[in-house]
TrEMBL record:
SMART domains: HATPase_c, HisKA, REC. Residues 332-551 form the Histidine kinase domain. This is histidine kinase. It catalyses: ATP + protein L-histidine = ADP + protein N-phospho-L-histidine. Keywords: Phosphoprotein. Its EC number is 2.7.13.3. The modification 4-aspartylphosphate is found at D622. CDD domains: HisKA (cd00082), PAS (cd00130). GO terms for molecular function: phosphorelay sensor kinase activity. Gene3D superfamilies: 1.10.287.130, 2.10.70.100, 3.40.50.2300, Histidine kinase-like ATPase, C-terminal domain, PAS domain. Pfam families: HATPase_c, HisKA, PAS_3, Response_reg. It is an enzyme of class 2 (transferase). Residues 572-683 form the Response regulatory domain.
Length: 695
């Protein structure tokens, strides 16, 4: 904490930090500032609790600093937050200190509510990504606050209008006949503000000759759904007779059954007296009543539309915040995991060449490679959910794709499940990534198999659909619908709503990752399509993958793969990567190919090597580096060496806005063969050389 002082509240969003151990505070402040947020530090936990206010965008704590502390002040502030507020917290834990394995961390999750745990050691970009996500979520909460304040102001004006018009609001629950009436409404029937006024009291107050009229109006409204409107005489407790004017609207549940009446009442005694004494003004008076009735109805239709809009806005905000936060975190973790997998796969591949004669060592390396590739497949699922996997989108004949998977599908579901396919031959091609669609179909088939443990039937079909409306989850156009239907156990409505949430699974622990449907949903959205699910318990489940159709014909597969035209040439290569392990693995693969490699660990270091006159045949650079990204480095190098072939390595499918560069892309994790091919493509592109096919 030395050298860092807390600053007073400035009225602007800020990050509140309590990290008293070692250099944690300095590091946290530095990273928060790099994320574009002002940092405020607290010297102790009571001060941290005292500084909590609506201007705090998010809080940063270390788990060990609050593990055994009294969190009552913090918990009290969190519990007292207004409805629009859900302050996010970032808790830095030690290795292995997540809530799954640490009861103390789990306790923090219960106290802080909206909390993200980040295990140390962590990469700076992971912290910055989480901090920015939390900051954006808090900004949306501020927008929700402004919207709610506007809605509250509208409600206040409506209440003022009702009071000004001497209109008494009331509500009648039809199941229990429980009546709720405002003070103004009670006054219409001669009751004081603090007197009890039940539905039985209301019925007794109606003039005996008018009770049949009131009951008939009520029955008609319940039967037909028409608005309730009646005028009747009422007897006050002092015996005097008055007139009441009552209007209401019927509300039903989702099954169409009558649920409650909501309306207004007013004292019509003066009007009725005037009608009796001044019959000549009857028409004018009736017109005024109709106008006032219309105004009341319009105002009433407006306690109801505003409330519905507010509830819808709150629900959409909560869902959007949850999915965006999970997507950002998942994509960042998958990106870092891709880098680690590249190191493992690259080193195992090179190691395999050195133990080619050792059968046991080769078998062990093959097993490790299989495990690493399974990790790469899991990473692709995570990137698919976060919509960041690299897709190879082409026109694909889905009927041919499904037919080609027939044997694989039958082996996957087993002999107890029969498969029926309905594949019309004349459908348009779909614009998709064939490999990802095959993986999605296999996931859906396996899910269907698991839902039918005693066997059953699985139906796979294709059809063409036209979307004409605007504003839904699909744009206008033609879609090919891949449908998978089973007659298994099915899902109830609550389970169906959470089915595509990441890591949600109905399978027992260890039997599923909970990423299958999340991956398919992410893939569908990234392909400009949609995943739609329908299910009923005991009936089965239908999953529909809506994919955009295209008039383009499927491409013919290449007869041979492309091999490097200069595989025997010895190149001098500049390799730029801030991750030491990745750089080491890549250097080994390049040197094994026979090239000379110079390593740089930052964009500025690489730029200095080129400016100093160093000659290189090609440069390979990582995209995500602190200080200077690979795209920025490439642009700077182009001004010095315009013709230098450059390959951009990245684990993301789409680069951030403003980072578009016309460079060959090397997707992580990559192996030696892919690395060699991309070097060749870059050289061929710069030198206008044709690609030579493999022998």
């Amino acid at each position: 904490m030395a050298g860092i002082a807390a600053i007073p509240n400035s009225g602007k969003p800020k990050a509140l930090i309590y990290t008293p151990t070692g250099r944690d505070a300095l590091v946290a402040v530095s990273l928060v500032n790099e994320a574009g947020v002002t940092a405020v530090t607290a010297p102790d936990l009571p001060m941290f609790a005292a500084l909590l206010d609506d201007d705090v965008a998010f809080g940063v704590l270390t788990e060990e600093a609050v593990r055994s502390s009294d969190l009552k002040q913090v918990a009290a502030w969190i519990s007292a937050q207004p409805s629009w507020s859900d302050l996010p917290f970032i808790v830095l834990t030690t290795r292995g200190g997540g809530p799954e394995r640490n009861p103390a961390a789990a306790r923090l999750s219960e106290v802080l509510a909206n909390v993200t745990f980040l295990e140390r050691p962590f990469h700076a970009t992971s912290f910055i990504s989480i901090a920015r996500t939390a900051f954006r979520g808090r900004l949306r909460q501020y927008q929700a606050r402004a919207h709610l304040e506007a809605l509250s102001e509208g409600e206040r004006r409506l209440q003022t209008a009702l009071a000004a018009g001497r209109l008494g609001a009331w509500e009648l629950e039809l199941s229990s006949m429980n009546l709720s009436a405002s003070d103004t409404c009670k006054a219409v029937f001669g009751r004081g503000p603090h007197e009890e006024f039940t539905y039985e009291d209301l019925v007794k107050s109606i003039y005996p000759d008018d009770r049949h009229l009131v009951q008939a109006s009520l029955d008609r409204t319940i039967e037909t759904g028409r608005d309730y409107s009646v005028e009747h005489r009422t007897i006050w407790p002092d015996g005097s007779i008055h007139w009441a004017e009552v209007h209401a609207q019927l509300y039903t549940d989702r099954y169409g059954s009558a649920k409650k009446l909501v309306g207004v009442s007013s004292d019509a005694t003066a009007r009725k007296t005037s009608e009796e004494n001044l019959r000549r003004l009857n028409e004018s008076l009736e017109e005024r009543v109709r106008e006032r009735t219309a105004e009341v109805h319009a105002a009433h239709q407006s306690l109801l539309e505003q409330v519905a809009q507010r509830e819808k806005a709150e629900e959409q905000l909560r869902h959007s915040q949850k999915m965006e936060a999970i997507g950002q975190l998942t994509g960042g973790v998958a990106h870092d995991f891709n880098n680690l997998l590249m190191v493992v796969l690259g080193n195992l591949e090179l190691l395999g060449k050195h133990v080619a004669g050792d059968r046991k060592a080769s078998r062990l390396i093959d097993g490790a490679l299989q495990g690493a590739r399974r990790g790469a497949a899991l990473t692709q699922r995570l990137l698919a959910f976060a919509r960041r996997q690299d897709l190879q989108v082409k026109p694909v004949d889905l009927a041919e794709l499904v037919s080609g998977m027939n044997d694989l599908l039958r082996r996957s579901v087993g002999s107890s499940v029969s498969i029926e396919a309905q594949l019309p031959p004349a459908l348009q091609p779909a614009l998709v990534d064939a490999n990802q669609v095959e993986l999605a179909l296999l996931n859906l088939a396996v899910n269907a198999r698991d839902a039918m443990p005693d066997g059953g039937s699985l139906s796979i079909s294709l059809r063409e659909e036209q979307v004409m409306a605007v504003g839904g989850d699909l744009g206008q156009g033609t879609y090919i619908v891949l449908s998978v239907t089973d007659n298994g156990s099915g899902m109830d409505e609550a389970t169906l709503k959470k089915a595509v949430d990441p890591f949600f699974s109905t399978k027992e622990l260890g039997k599923g990752t909970g990423l299958g449907l999340s991956m398919i949903h992410g893939l569908a959205v990234q392909l400009n399509g949609a995943l739609r699910l329908a299910s009923k318990p005991g009936v089965g489940t239908t999953a529909e993958l809506w994919l955009p159709a295209t008039e383009r014909r499927p491409e013919q597969p290449a007869e041979t793969d492309m091999a490097p035209a200069q595989a025997a040439s010895r190149l001098k290569i500049l390799l730029v990567d801030d991750d030491t392990l990745i750089a080491m693995s890549s250097v080994e693969m390049l040197e094994d190919l026979g090239h000379d490699v110079v390593e740089a660990n930052s964009g500025s270091q690489a730029l200095e090597l080129i400016r100093s006159g160093g000659h290189f045949d090609v440069m390979i650079t990582d995209y995500s580096m602190p200080g200077m990204t690979g795209a920025q480095l490439a642009q700077a190098v182009r001004t010095i060496r315009p013709k230098l072939p450059i390959v951009l390595a990245t684990g993301y499918a789409d680069l951030p806005a403003g980072a578009e560069v016309d460079l060959p892309r090397l997707a992580k994790p990559y192996n030696q063969a892919k690395l060699a091919r991309e070097i060749h493509k870059a050289l061929a592109s710069e030198m206008d050389l044709p690609l030579k096919s493999a022998s």
